[in-house]
Amino acid sequence: MVIKVFLASSSGSTAIKKKQQDVLGFLEALKVDYAPLDIACNEDNRMWMRENVPVEKKPTNGIPLPPQIFNEESYCGDYETFFDAKEDNAVFAFLGLPPPPGSKEAKEAEKAFILENGPVENGTVENETVENGTDDAEDEENLEAEEVEEENLDDDSLKREVPMEEFNGDEHTDEVEAEVGGETGEEAAEEAAEEDAAAEEKVAKEEEEEVVENTEEAAEDTKAPVKQEEAQEEVEDEEAKGEDDHPVSEGEEDLGSEEEEELRQLEEEEEAPEQEEEDE
């Protein structure tokens, strides 16, 4: 299979030239064999390209522009579809070629195949081998159905042999445990409520004690300055009494009597001239 790329070597459009270079460069990077066919110098190539491009892929004017890509006689697409395949890592699928082993496109194709058909072992797909007219999946389903029927039969036989009271023993014990659990739950709730009430009372008592202590300390603080004032007044009174009770010495008494006599003499001297004047 040969990939044919129809080009215009003497095109005046830079956009067309760039698209042609992108296609050829990418094919060379992938090491894909291709044959460039010039439509500018070969009329046969131009006519063949225009006739073999599908009608739905042609533009409104009916003349397809290069580059156009073919795989032998089958149409692959134009630059836009080639670019989309390049972005999706599906260029080999676009060209109709098998991807090389180990390439990203080959790995993605293998994953897609496994998702659709299941894992592959020894070159064959699982669940595709047929034995005795049925495949493995059907055999497994039949075996599972038989096992389920056997289990149901065993359960029915046990129910018939065991009395209903013993058969329902587990359910009865569950009900009793549920009732006991309910009672214990209520008792636990009551105990928790009592503990909460006791804790609240304890907290209230501690708060009252703190308030009493604070009031006593405040009272002591107010009494302290009053006691200090009273003590200071008592000290002052004692000092005053001490001064009054202090004994007077003989020297002090003599000084006092002398002062009194001097005062009397002065008074007499002052009165003497007044009396003389009066007598005259």
From TrEMBL:
InterPro entries assigned: Glut_rich_SH3-bd (IPR006993), SH3BGR (IPR051033), Thioredoxin-like_sf (IPR036249)
Region (Disordered): 115-280
Pfam families with a match to the protein in the record: SH3BGR
Compositionally biased tracts (Low complexity): 120-132
Amino acid composition bias (Acidic residues), ranges on this chain: 133-155, 172-198, 206-219, 231-242, 250-280
GO cellular component: cytoplasm
Extent of Basic and acidic residues compositional bias: 220-230
Protein name: SH3 domain-binding glutamic acid-rich protein-like isoform X1
Organism field: Salvelinus namaycush
